[in-house]
Amino acid sequence: MSNSLDLTFIVDQITKLLIFLNRSPVQIQLLVILISILVSHSLSYWVGKKIKANFPQLAVNLAQETTLAPYWCGLILIPDLVGRGFSLIALNLFHDLFIHQGWIAGILAIAINILWVYLFYRIFVVSLCLFIPIDRVKECNFYFFRPLFILYVLREILSLFVDFDQLLQVVVINLFGSSVTVAAVLISTVGLYLWIVAVNILQYVLWQTTINSTKLDSGSTQASLILIRYFLITFGIVVVVGYLGFNSTTFAAITGGLSVGIGFGLKEVFSNFISGIFLLFEGSLRPGDIIEIGGESSEVKKVSMRATTVQVMRDNSEKIIPNQIFFTQELKTMTGSDRRVRKSLIVGVSYDCDPENIIEILLEIIYKHPETLNDPAPLVSFINFGESSLDFEITVWLEHPIGGKRIMSEIACEIWKVFGEKNIEIPYPQRDLHIRSDIRKEVD
């Protein structure tokens, strides 16, 4: 189909639309639908306002990032059921009236179908709140389900006065020796967008299912899901490019030339991208890992293709670190092959104490703490005859690096308490001062 034919087709469709809208039965149907929508919306608003006034807890529940009980889901649906139910009854009555009078009622029939689909769409979205936190449902609805519903509505409306299949074949532009049609534009934009959002939703569902129903390591699971996500997105892009049907030789030549120029300007971006792929495939850095970089202990929150987001444990701030940094700088990880961590504490007691008794007391204190591990076993060592104390080193193993400072603080407080109860002295530093006799004479 040539461009001139395409322009003629578009002009013909616009002319057909104007003629269609000038018909009295069409205008009457549109007026009935408009009045029905206004009344339905007002009724839904009034019912919703009454529900919020009588059930103030509903607003509190909607503000929380949790799932909803069936009771609250039902309350949310009542305004829609009442308002859209009124519209369905009214439109069906007018539809039957039009048919009885021998008038066309195609627009009313489509409006009724759209209302039924809207009701099922609303019931489906609200029902998701039974299993998925509200904030996540709102996000999925805004970015995926609502656009799908809007596309359906547009498709139904356009089908009234346009041959939709013919419209999709209209050529928009010739690119790389190929004709780009309306269908190709929609698939490469709207279709690709919906595919990417659907992949993100799939990743979230698989993540929640895996974490809640299996005992797989969360870091490895999230890294695997990220790889699956990028694979599916890449697959979608390849399918779209294939559907567009570009001339492969011309396309390769142009993209090859662009890649050379872009390569110099985006060298760091590609370096980070490749580094991200290696990080995900090797599994050397995973979400949930505790690392030390730049002299600060941080928890890895997200590993993406370009950068890694870490949360600094000292002040709870977040840092976005380019992935190539992990290949050019030394990195200390405390959760690599073993998430257990060893902590130590030095304790000094008076020279009057029995070292073996002190070791037994310290071990008893350690074993009583619920967050210390028995395997590997804790160790108390007599390490030094200090200047003013007998020095002991406590070594304990913890399940996870997070919380180590708190646990050691609790153990130290318990040691202070037990030593006080058993009259065990923790001596102050002492110094012996010797005054030479010749200095005394000079002073005298």
Please outline the helices and strands.
Layout: H1 3-21, H2 24-54, H3 57-63, H4 70-101, H5 106-128, H6 134-158, H7 164-168, E1 171-175, E2 178-181, H8 182-213, H9 218-244, H10 248-265, H11 267-282, E3 290-293, E4 296-303, E5 307-312, E6 318-322, H12 325-328, E7 332-333, E8 341-349, H13 355-368, E9 379-385, E10 390-398, H14 404-421, H15 437-443
Antiparallel strand pairs: 1-2, 3-4, 3-7, 4-5, 5-6, 8-10, 9-10
Helix pairs in contact: 2-4, 4-5, 5-6, 6-8, 8-9, 13-14
Commentary on this structure:
The protein is 63% helix and 13% strand. With 444 residues, the chain is an alpha+beta fold. Among the domains are: 1-162, no CATH class; 289-333, SH3 type barrels (Roll); 341-422, Alpha-Beta Plaits, CATH 3.30.70.100. A hairpin with a 2-residue loop joins strand 1 and strand 2. 16% of the residues are buried. It is found in: Cell membrane. The chain crosses the membrane at residues 26-47, 68-91, 103-131, 143-162, 182-206, 227-246. It is a multi-pass membrane protein.
Task: Summarize, please.
With 444 residues, the protein is an alpha+beta fold. It has 15 helices and ten strands.
What percent strand? 5-15%
DSSP helix count? 15
* SSE succession: HHHHHHHEEHHHHEEEEHEEHEEHH
The overall average pLDDT, rounded, is 82
